[in-house]
Design brief:
Length: 352
């Protein structure tokens, strides 16, 4: 699973994409003027998430390009990636690259040489951090991602490939990351119905489980029982269909994150207003929307055009571009690069 997540996440990272990132996010002159008092090699503490490996690489690389030093504070749920990143970049960029791993509590890492804290986590945690830490805080709270399948893609010859790619997006990170789809909106009127799509997706996820088996967690079945009791009741009322305890097809009136590992909702739609109404208040928490085709993406952009959303095709939800702006935030600009990155020699480490 770890190898699959790494391969998918960094598939688009190369020197050309790094140069494109610098071209897009080089600071303006006004921003440069405001950085003259920034301490050289100012320290940045990065509180890492447990489910998006690219966040660690992008944040660290932005700090290095800004001339700073990095201290990584791993999540207790995923302590290994920070060490792998540190070992990897040392081999690529040399032992002098400023990176450290904080093994104690985060508050112990807030030393005098730490000028900025980049934090990933729950909204409540970040707000608490902002209220207690006397540092510059760049926070990224909880987000969700969605997928939209249009009727033009719902043909029988395309169904195996489409569901295989959707299963890939759903299985990586066990549907626990902010880039993992919580719900797939499937358009009515295609050669394949939304109900048929749900059944095919469940089969594709079952087949992928053989290649990427799900890690067993103690007492997980007991913790999930209330969730399944609710949906079994809805199924008995004809309001839902459960396929292999992986895919739940329903037409409930409002969106809610699923939250369970490798379980996803399928919701049908006929008009784009159906999607807009169903998402409701969650629209401001959307990170990524994957679409099955260009026509569907164009339709969806009409209702989400005012938001900072990353758009991609189905099967590429975890394949992050280096210039990805989480919530519209450019880390390079926020970290106050002191001179034009376009003219700087690129010595930031690319992932292995």
């Amino acid at each position: 699973m770890v190898r699959a997540c790494l391969a998918s996440t960094f598939a688009g990272c190369d020197e050309a994409s790094l140069r494109e990132w610098l071209k897009r996010d080089s600071p303006t002159r006004n921003a440069e003027r405001g950085t003259r008092n920034v301490k050289k090699n100012a320290g940045t503490l990065i509180l890492l998430p447990s489910t998006v490996f690219a966040a660690a690489w992008q944040s660290s690389t932005a700090v290095w390009l800004a001339g700073g030093s990095v201290t990584l504070k791993p999540s207790r749920r995923e302590p290994a990636f920070a060490k792998l990143l540190a070992q990897s970049v040392k081999k690529i960029a040399g032992p002098t690259l400023p990176i450290k791993i904080e093994v104690g509590r985060a508050r112990r890492a807030r030393r005098d040489n730490t000028q900025t804290i980049i934090a990933y986590g729950k909204d409540e945690t970040i707000e608490k951090l902002r209220s207690t830490a006397a540092k510059k805080i760049i926070g990224f709270g909880s987000m969700i991602s969605l997928a939209c399948v249009g009727k033009n893609a719902l043909v029988k010859t395309n169904l195996p490939n489409l569901t295989r790619r959707m299963a890939w997006d759903t299985t990586l990170y066990d549907t626990q990351g902010c880039l993992s789809p919580q719900c797939v909106y499937v358009e009515k009127g295609g050669k394949v119905s939304p109900e048929q799509f749900a059944k095919a997706l469940a089969r594709a996820m079952r087949h992928l489980d053989v290649r990427l088996p799900r890690k067993k967690i103690q007492n997980e079945a007991m913790m999930e029982e209330s969730f399944w009791q609710r949906w079994r009741f809805l199924e008995s009322q004809g309001r839902a269909q459960i396929h292999d305890r992986r895919v739940i097809f329903h037409q409930e009136p409002s969106f809610e994150p699923c939250g369970l590992r490798r379980v996803i909702f399928i919701v049908p739609w006929r008009r784009i207003s159906d999607v807009n109404r169903h998402v409701g208040a969650w629209r401001n928490k959307i990170s990524t929307i994957a679409t099955s085709d260009a026509i569907t993406q164009k339709k969806m952009k009409r209702i989400f055009q005012q938001l900072f959303i990353r758009w991609c095709e189905v099967g590429a939800m975890h394949k992050l571009e280096p210039w990805w702006r989480n919530g519209g935030v450019s880390l390079l600009r926020r970290l106050s690069v002191t001179h034009s990155s376009q003219n700087r020699r690129i010595n930031a480490p690319l992932p292995l």
